[in-house]
Specification:
Methylamine Dehydrogenase, Chain H; mainly beta; 48% strand; 475 residues; globular
Length: 475
């Protein structure tokens, strides 16, 4: 009996030792040292880890796309071409391997300063990259109170994924502010859809419409436009997604009227741009992100201000579910500008947010899609670190995150890119799987494994000796 007890205790402690959360912090081919992100969290019992992380000085990361086999990562954003001039931002695109090393970087130099890419998408065969954004074209002066701001035009570019060579570009040149904020590609790769705001007036009034245009992927020529305009209002498009079948696109955003904001979610027919259905409501603040289920039956849209994730039936916009995201009593006025649904549609990944009353800034928060309860997260070490986009791997394990560190006072701007596992700290009793995970992440973990086994044996032996002595038995 005594030796059976020793065996049971030893096995139990061994399993407990191997079930501790793993915290990996290895950097592969860093562009510069990292000081901006942490691989632990403080508010959840189960924390995430960071596999690698890199930074680029004088740059900002806005959007990210990852190839299907996770071989390459594309980041769209901007680069400060003249660090002495804080306005010298130009649209920039990076291609990296999934170990974080740089393959190529292009910057659109022959364009005015204070411009950037906002979104990036890959063609289905992953041979082309499409990026969309804006660039300045004049200024506008507002009288009350007097101030001047730049006017912008919109741009879309097609880039060869292998070489980084620019193929074609498409621009919008309205009377005042034009921006294209979202881009997506049809499943057959023949059509590129972009969405944003098209200005409706010049002068001191900034009125714009919800604007979507379909482009021929071979030469960038427009196929059809769609426009939704409410008189004397400002439309803001935030996200765009294509259905898996390719017969519909879904556009999310809001309309600003005097003293109010209406959220907008559109479904359009990809054949001609005709409207299938339109949700416009004052119930919430704005839809800043939209996702489509893998079977195309459900549409997910998020309002970041009131922190609700709504699920609609794609065929007729019937509301199926309304989940309040539970951030443990916190409220984020900045909110997530985007979100991602896991491939198995069980979790929601939200960048750019904070957790708790003390504003613990996060790189990504993971929530249960059905209940809205938090599952895990990866914490940002510095409050000036702003994640802007997240992509989830096909196996629901890893996330790729890009964003920016912005310290205006010190003139310090950096783009960061990282690969992490938000749930690396989830406790498990699957010893073989855990051993494999530890060794595959870092072969040097063999020393940790040996140390854990030795510690568990020693502790189990001590406990057994104490039990035997108290029973008056010989050892």
């Amino acid at each position: 009996m005594n030796w059976k007890l020793l065996t049971v205790l030893t096995c139990f402690l061994l399993l407990a030792a191997f079930s501790m959360p793993l915290v990996q912090n290895t950097t592969a081919n860093p562009i510069m040292p990292n000081t901006l992100v942490s691989n632990t969290i403080t508010s959840d019992s189960k924390g995430g880890s960071i596999n690698w992380r890199v930074q680029v000085e004088d740059a900002q990361g806005r959007s990210i796309a990852v190839t299907s086999n996770e071989s390459y990562i594309y980041v769209a954003g901007a680069r400060l071409v003249n660090p002495a001039n804080s306005s010298s931002w130009k649209p920039s695109l990076w291609k990296c391997t999934t170990s974080g090393s740089l393959v190529w970087n292009i910057t659109i130099e022959d364009i005015q300063e204070y411009s950037q890419f906002e979104d990036v998408a890959l063609s289905p065969d992953e041979s082309s990259v499409y990026a969309t954004g804006y660039y300045p074209n004049g200024t506008i002066t507002f009288p009350y109170p007097p101030y001047t701001m730049p006017l912008t035009d919109a741009i879309v570019v097609k880039v060869d994924a292998s070489t980084g060579d620019v193929g074609w570009n498409y621009t919008l040149n309205g009377p005042s502010n034009d921006r294209l904020k979202a881009v997506a590609v049809s499943p057959d790769g023949e059509t590129v859809y972009v969405a944003g705001e098209l200005s409706q007036s010049s002068g001191t009034l900034y009125n714009s419409s919800f604007y979507v245009v379909a482009l021929n992927s071979s030469d960038g020529s427009p196929l059809w436009p769609y426009e939704l305009y409410i008189l004397d209002s400002t439309g803001y498009v935030q996200d765009l997604e294509v259905s898996p079948s390719g017969d519909a696109i879904y556009v999310a955003g809001s309309y600003w009227l005097v003293g109010s904001s209406d959220l907008v979610l559109l479904a359009l027919n990809t054949a001609d741009g005709s409207q299938i259905w339109n949700i416009t409501s004052t119930m919430y603040y704005s839809f800043d992100g939209v996702e489509v289920s893998s079977d195309g039956e459900r549409i997910y849209a998020m309002d970041p201000f009131y922190e609700h994730l709504l699920t609609y039936r794609s065929s007729d916009a019937l509301l199926l579910q309304n989940v309040s995201i539970n951030r443990k009593g916190s409220h984020s006025s900045t909110g997530p500008l985007v979100f991602t649904i896991s491939p198995d549609e069980s979790k929601v990944y939200i960048p750019r947010t904070y957790l708790g009353v003390y504003e613990v800034y996060m790189l990504v928060l993971v929530f249960n899609l059905s209940s809205g309860d938090p599952i895990s997260s990866i914490k940002a070490q510095n409050t000036l670190t702003w994640p802007n986009d997240v992509v989830v791997s096909g196996d629901n394990v890893h996330v790729y995150i890009t964003g920016s560190y912005i310290n205006v006072v010190n003139g310090d701007y950096r783009m960061f890119l990282l690969k992490g596992n938000p749930e690396a700290g989830v406790y498990t009793l699957l010893l073989p799987a855990l051993l494999y995970q530890m060794l595959s992440q870092n072969p040097m973990n063999i020393f940790l494994i040996v140390a854990a086994i030795a510690s568990a044996v020693v502790v189990a032996s001590i406990v057994t000796v104490i039990i035997l002595v108290r029973r008056g038995q010989s050892i």
